[in-house]
Design brief:
Blueprint (H helix, E strand, L loop, with lengths): L1 E5 L4 H12 L3 E6 L8 E5 L4 E2 L9 E4 L12 H25 L3 E7 L11 E2 L9 H11 L2 H5 L3 E7 L1 E3 L4 H11 L4 E3 L8 E3 H13 L5 E5 L7 H12 L5 E3 L1 H8 L1 H7 L4 E2 L2 H5 L9 H9 L4
Helix pairs in contact: 1-6, 2-3, 7-11, 8-9
């Protein structure tokens, strides 16, 4: 396949480019800087500028654009940046894909589409959108693909969970704390932590590219949901460190504000119904297996 990727320099994009090339696919990257390689095209989504040649002959476009959700405190300006960095590129790419007749658009989204304060209720791809900033962001993000879907493009919406990687994301931040024996549950520990290994995130995206039965929303989560307390114990076991501590909810709210309420103290108990129905073989079906593989340690 010829696959065009926007957002190829991030954690998932970098791994996806490498995996697709290992599998023999041709990868073209859309970049927002001067072109340095033959496989790159410069684009400017803010000005709706995209070279027509970039999508010529493409079998699929993968859009992974978006500023990091937890990288900064959620000020009004940063929340707008989170929206603009997702919705604007998606709108431009959806229109370009429709115009160019590209058969498939695989577009990032997030599992917090469902909201977070759901208790033990299981959510699948057919569950309704939740409330709150993240849920609204994900709903609008997905809605920006409408031009592609209306043109008959197979559109896959990746509702991704926390991606477990040794270098990058949440696990990179937690690792030094647990290494020092300072790991512990966050708040009550009863909230769910939707997770997926980087290998399975990339594997499932590759699977979506080549399996036409996947269309619409796809929960990119591991098949065995865990609470924060269970995640904490599993990480402690893999790292052979105690996890005696607890960070009170009020301290998290003081430290990171609204982000704590929406993404740390609450989380959906999501399951990957679409991936399982399509026959995707998870490499790391449990949190213990995912953490052990990610950290290169036995649990």
């Amino acid at each position: 396949m010829k696959v065009v990727i926007a957002g190829s320099s991030g954690l998932i994009g970098t791994a996806l480019v490498a995996a697709l090339r290992r599998d023999g696919h041709e990868v073209t990257r859309l970049v927002r800087r001067p072109v340095h390689a033959r496989d790159e095209f410069t684009w400017d989504p803010v000005r709706s500028n995209l070279d027509d040649r970039a999508l010529r002959g493409a079998d699929a476009v993968v859009n992974l654009c978006g500023a990091g959700i937890g990288q900064r405190r959620w000020t009004g300006s940063y929340k707008q940046e989170l929206r603009d960095s997702r919705i604007v590129p998606t709108d431009v790419l959806a229109a370009a894909v429709a115009a160019a007749g590209v058969p498939t658009l695989v577009n990032a989204s997030g599992v917090h589409y469902y909201g977070g304060d759901l208790g033990d209720r299981v959510v699948t791809e057919s569950s309704p959108a939740g409330t709150g900033f993240l849920a609204g962001l994900c709903a609008d993000w997905e809605a920006a693909t409408v031009q592609a879907a209306d043109a008959g493009v197979r559109t896959v919406l990746l509702r991704s969970a926390v991606v477990l990687a040794r270098h990058g994301g949440m696990l990179e931040m937690l690792y030094p704390l647990y290494y020092l024996g300072l790991g512990g549950r966050l708040g009550s520990g009863r909230q769910y932590v939707p997770w997926i290994s980087l290998d399975d995130e990339v594997g499932a995206i590759s699977y979506a590219l080549t399996h036409e039965s996947l269309s619409g929303p796809v929960n990119m989560v591991g098949p065995a949901p865990v609470t924060n307390a269970e995640f904490t114990r599993a990480l402690g076991r893999v790292m052979h460190r105690p996890t005696p501590l607890m960070v009170p909810a009020f301290a998290l709210r003081l430290a990171v504000g609204e982000f704590a309420e929406e993404a740390i103290l609450h989380g959906p108990r999501a399951i990957p119904t679409a991936l399982e129905a399509a026959g995707y073989p998870f490499q790391h079906p449990t949190i213990g297996a995912a953490l052990s593989a990610t950290l290169g340690q036995s649990g």
